């Protein structure tokens, strides 16, 4: 598939896909005319890259971990890195939960005088 189709199927911009290729995260074949072509598996790879970026991993870390994540095989150093990243994400989740709990407390305090105001109501 060409880059435009991959962008459409993954919801990722063409510019981001080119960046992934520059970072060696997303390989492509080139046609004689220079057009990028991607295999069907690129859709899932892009989704995985997006998820890892969303979790705060750097492109270098993603590049290091992709072989393990794609093949399901690991080495002791890579396993250590996976555990480190998992623990970092767990700390992020705990921090986000703490921030949510603080917001809940502020909302409760702010709305105690407004019983008609339902905080579950969409804005």
Task: Describe this protein's structure.
The chain is mainly α. The protein has 2 domains: 1-73, Multidrug-efflux Transporter Regulator, Chain: A, Domain 2; 74-123. The chain contains 5 helices and 2 strands; from the N terminus they run ααββααα. A two-stranded antiparallel ribbon has the order 1-2. A hairpin with a 5-residue loop joins strand 1 and strand 2. The longest helix is centred in the last third of the chain and has 36 residues, at 76-111. The protein is flat, with a radius of gyration of 21 Å. The model has no long low-confidence stretch (mean pLDDT 89).
Q: Which shape, going by the Cα principal axes?
A: flat
Q: What does the average pLDDT come to?
A: 89
What distance separates the N and C termini?
41 Å
- Helix/strand order, N-terminal first: HHEEHHH
Low-pLDDT runs: none
CATH fold type of the largest domain: Multidrug-efflux Transporter Regulator, Chain: A, Domain 2
CATH architecture of the largest domain: Orthogonal Bundle
How many strands, what sense, and barrel or not for the largest sheet?
A: 2 strands, antiparallel
Calculate Rg over CA atoms.
21 Å
Can you count the beta strands?
A: 2
Structural class: mainly alpha
Q: What percentage of the residues does DSSP assign to strands (E)?
A: under 5%
When the domains are counted, the total is 2
Q: What count of helical segments does DSSP give?
A: 5
The main sheet orders its strands as 1-2
CATH top level class name of the largest domain:
Mainly Alpha
């Amino acid at each position: 598939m060409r880059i435009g189709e991959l962008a459409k199927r993954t919801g990722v911009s063409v510019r981001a896909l080119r960046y992934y290729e520059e970072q060696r995260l997303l390989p492509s074949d080139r046609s004689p005319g220079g057009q990028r072509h991607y295999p069907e598996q690129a859709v899932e790879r892009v989704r995985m890259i997006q998820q890892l970026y969303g979790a705060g991993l750097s492109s270098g870390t993603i590049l290091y971990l992709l072989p393990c994540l794609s093949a399901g095989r690991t080495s002791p150093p890579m396993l250590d890195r996976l555990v480190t990243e998992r623990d970092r994400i767990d700390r992020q989740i705990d921090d986000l939960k703490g921030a949510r709990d603080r917001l809940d407390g502020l909302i409760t305090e702010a709305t105690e005088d407004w019983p008609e105001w339902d905080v579950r109501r969409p804005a």
